[in-house]
Amino acid sequence: MPILIKNCRICANGKVYSKNILIKKDKISKITNKEPKADKTIDAKNNFVLPGLIDAHVHFREPGLTHKEDFLSGSMAAAKGGITTILDMPNTIPATATIEALEQKKRLAAKSIVNYGFNFGSTENNLEDIKKAKNIAAVKLYMDYTTGDLKISDFEVIKEILKASKMTIIHAEDEHVKNAVDILIKNKIKGRVHFAHVSSQRELEYAKSNKLKKQITVEVTPHHLFMNQNDLQHLGAFAEMKPRLKTENDQKALWHGIKNGMVDIIASDHAPHLKEEKEQANYPFGVPGVETMLPLLLDAFNKNMMTLPKIMELCCENPAKIFKIKNKGFLKEGFDADLVIADLDKRQAVRNDDLLTKCKWSPFEGKILKGWPVTTMVNGSVVYDNGNVFNIKAREVQYAG
Ligand code: NCD
Ligand code: ZN
Ligand code: ZN
Question: How far is 382 from 153, CA to CA, in rounded Å?
Fold first, then answer.
């Protein structure tokens, strides 16, 4: 059942090309000027086609917190946002910090319509499980308080986790970024470290201004790029997440980091909580993000704040490279047919009613954005097209090495 996507505009090597993309089964078979025979043709109408986004930081809340999200609702929202692969975080109930919990999560994730991978949680006493865990993207280490109770304060324990893991994603705020880097240096630890949701100039400097530049990668979120603490005035708890929104200067520093290569990836940190929960006095931290990440970035492209190759680098190529995800992140012959057709001229407001996340709200509600995904393909099947979602199951990602 070959599918031909006609009239695609694609970016490669700093140039824009008009091409047709032939999909065979779940792979990109040809990117060509010709019109090979196919059973089905999709007209991209000269819209840009990007590799599907790889969102390395989402909380799909299953098991245990499925009133907020689950793998089906979260993945439908992701597909609508042009995301074709997600890496889920371990702060579920139970936490994904035992082999048993990982196996359970793998079974639950089978309902996802975008490809999925897992980050394994670390605790004060699960080193043996960390060493045994197979086919994971990374080990997640929480050095600060946030949703769930995985925070670790003991630097000795942190040292052992960093030693045991080839790749650790750290939730570290402010001084804790520096502390984590110091532990790496002092103990000559060779494992790679990825700092999640870096939110301030100081954090960015701590993470990147040392000799471990290659060993350390930095992630920023759309909410820290497109909001700052002034937004708390009108949004209140709906703009409260960990780390909290920072100053305009910090926001600028993150944008500067994108331009000068200090920032390696953008990930949503999709962290849905229900409206009712956010309205309580002791509201939980976190905001949803999978549906608005690409539209926000395309809008930034339209405002000359970012190029399309940069969006592809930070949201597709680098996540695939950093987490060693096989066969994804690039529009290349032989790669998985995970892609998104984006209409760069489409203007539309973010509307809570349109959202597919179970929480049904966004801190960006009302914002008019120019540039929206219109069609998303996962493993060669269209899972999202102009408002319609198709429940076609995806699969677990595989890693090289
Ligand atoms: C996340 C959540 O709710 O799971 N919350 C958040 O504010 N970012 C946890 C996290 O990423 O720290
Ligand atoms: Zn976090
Ligand atoms: Zn998170």
Answer: 45
Q: Give 306's DSSP letter.
A: S
- In a domain? residue 139: yes
User: 141 near 169, Cβ under 8 Å?
Assistant: yes
Which residue from 55, 66, 147, 359 has its CB within 8 A of the most atoms of ligand 1, so it is best to mutate? 147
Distance CA 288, CA 357 (A): 8
Residue 91 beta carbon below 6 angstroms from any ligand 1 atom: yes
Query: Is residue 300 included in any domain, yes or no?
Result: yes
Range of the domain at 144: 52-322
Rounded mean pLDDT, 291-298: 99
Ligand 1 touching residue 59 (CB < 6 A): yes
Ligand 1 atom nearest the C-alpha of 284 is 3
Strand, helix or coil for residue 180: helix
Domain count along the chain:
1
Locate the ligand 1 atom nearest the alpha carbon of residue 242 and give its number.
7
Place of tokens 């080839």: 166
- Considering the chain, what percentage of its residues have pLDDT values greater than 90? 98
What's the whole-number average pLDDT of the chain? 97
- Is the CB of residue 271 below 6 angstroms from any atom belonging to ligand 1? yes
Closest protein CA for atom 6 of ligand 1: 286
Ligand 1 pocket test, pick from 269, 270, 274, 277 with the greatest ligand atom count within 8 Å of Cβ, gives: 269
CA 118/CA 169 separation, integer angstroms: 12
Whether residue 7 lies inside any domain: the answer is: no
Q: What is the pLDDT of residues 320-364, one digit of tens each?
A: 999 999 999 999 999 999 999 999 999 999 999 999 999 999 999
Catalytic residues: 269
Cα 60 from Cα 241, distance rounded (Å): 16
What is the reported pTM?
A: 0.98
Instruction: Tell me, yes or no, whether 346 lies in a domain.
Output: no
What's 279's domain CATH number?
Answer: 3.20.20.140
Residue 123: closest CA among 103, 152, 92: 152
